[in-house]
Amino acid sequence: MDDSRDSADADRRTASADDPPTRADARELDRTDPLADLRDRFFLPEGEAYMDGNSLGLCSADAVAALDRAVEQWKTLAVRGWTDADPEWFTYGERLGDRLASLVGASGEEVVVGNSTTVNIHTLIGTFHDPDRGEKIVVNDLDFPTDHYAIRARLRAAGRDPDDALRVVESRDGRTIEEADVVAALDDDVGTVFLPSVLYRSGQLIDIERITEAAHDAGALAGFDLAHSVGVVPHDLSAAGVDFAVWCHYKYLNAGPGALAGLYVNERHFGVTPDLAGWWGHEKETQFEMRRTYTPADSAGAFQIGTPPILSAAPLDGALDVTEDAGIDALREKSLALTDFLIGLVDDRLPDCEVGTPREASRRGGHVAVEHPEAYRISEALKDRSVVVDFRPPNVVRICPSPYYVGFEDVYEVVDRLAGILADRAYERYETRGAGVT
Ligand SMILES: Cc1ncc(COP(=O)(O)O)c(C=O)c1O
To answer: What phi and psi, each to the nearest 5 degrees, are found at residue 49?
Structure first.
């Protein structure tokens, strides 16, 4: 994040603090928004304010066109599609990796599309966590659960007790993680640090550069889960020297439910044999010689496992047209303006709610955590008023104004409905959260 963006953000916040945002402000911001037309490429759920793009991004005409093309080529080319389709299916994961590279700040060889995020955590932790470097893996207590499940499974598979091998950095406030606490957790016993770029609940953006540098100083490797930032926050993984990273494409990148995931491996690690090796990660030139021994591709492509599901990968090819046309810096700028506007409105209109997301632009991802003890029932009431948000226990309504298809007046409208629900105590007409509901 550059300084000029930080100071622009500070200016905006000062303005909103002095002057509560109005609907007229929202309309003016929409009128001057350079990305205002982007939403026309999406299928917007009719009559709904969709604020859940950090859970599942919306379908675009571009994604559908790419999927239709893949289906058509399956019909006409059948097996020849592996080599003759446009783009050829044999190197689909690598080609999509080339397109994603600039979003994460890496070279094309360092990025590939394949597997799921959870599987990628399995294979990357399994490959790179080396107890000889240090027994412990540093994680944090606000992580998305799958990260811990996968890391614990790899530790068990390696014959270690996860309770012993995991060093969990505790949040001080239940919302955020202090980078200083992560740095303080690093010592000679640590082999790997694995953190999210953006915390899934509060939306805190973690300082990847600082953590990576501190990890390296301690002789450890640094890996990140970028699920909540890729496509909305620019990254510079290679320059920071990050060792490996994973992410999904079904959130901000709008590639569809369960879309194939992405991963990054720094080029200094090329040539290692992945923990979950499979023939699709074999050196491409000799893959079809069907040798018994595995030669890893000399790229992140080695971390593919089996045949990529082309029909799940194709929508990403189209969805990336939208991202590339908009530009990641413009998307980040709009996202910050939207979340800033939202935070200003929460401060002004919702005195019973707290903003659980850091206010500084450099510490904020693409969504805002609005906290209230009745967050679950409020989320239900919002859904009945055609506002799609999600609830995250214990007290968070997550609101994600995706810069791809949400406007400032949409944000104004959502807060207006939320204010109405709180003023009428309309949420009291809903059941409290039952066991097992998330
Ligand atoms: C931070 C994070 N990691 C991983 C996942 C999910 O991984 P997978 O796509 O393998 O289900 C999510 C899902 O929301 C997430 O928020």
So the answer is: -95, 115
- Crossing angle for the helix pair 328-349 and 310-326, to the nearest 10 degrees: 80
Pocket of ligand 1 (CB under 6 A): 116-118, 144, 146-147, 196, 200, 225, 227-228, 248, 261
Span from the CA of 389 to the centroid of ligand 1 (angstroms) = 17
Closest CA to 404 of 70, 92, 69, 63: 63
- What is the Cα–Cα distance from 188 to 198, expressed in whole angstroms? 26
- Predicted confidence (pLDDT) per residue in 82-130, tens digit: 999 999 999 999 999 999 999 999 999 999 999 999 999 999 999 999 9
Q: CA 281, 286, 287 angle in degrees (round to 5)?
A: 40
Tell me whether residue 239 is exposed, middle or buried, using C-beta atoms within 10 angstroms of its C-beta: 0 to 12, 13 to 18, 19 or more: exposed
Q: Report whether 136 contacts 191 (CB < 8 A).
A: yes
Q: Is the dihedral of CA 305, 127, 107, 320 positive or negative?
A: positive
CA of 298 to the centre of ligand 1 (A): 27
Which is the closest atom of ligand 1 to the Cα of 120? Answer: 10
Contact yes or no for 342/368 (Cβ under 8 A): yes
Torsion-angle region of 232 (φ positive above 0: left; ψ -120 to 50: alpha; else: beta): alpha
What's the pLDDT at 404? Answer: 98
Domains in the chain: ranges and CATH = 3-60+327-429 (3.90.1150.10), 91-324 (3.40.640.10)
